[in-house]
Amino acid sequence: MDLVLPGPGDLSQSYGVPWQVRHPRVREAVNTLRAACARHGVPFCAMATTEERRREWRADGVTAFVLGQDRDLFSRALRAHRETAAG
Q: Is 68 left (phi over 0), alpha (psi -120 to 50) or beta?
């Protein structure tokens, strides 16, 4: 299946606000892209590393997600395990 996957990190670099993926210009660009995909029936994949962001995107009709990079997912799982083990 083809879909559009924006790169907020890459966009932030292009807009001169490196790694500020929640910067208003970056968010506006991603939202504009999402709207264009919806208008043209093109599947959109959102970067959503938190449950809150996934809920927001789902409410906007998005069904495909990148949940994070492998090292981020592993790091979160390890921290959660350590917290549980520490009791």
A: left
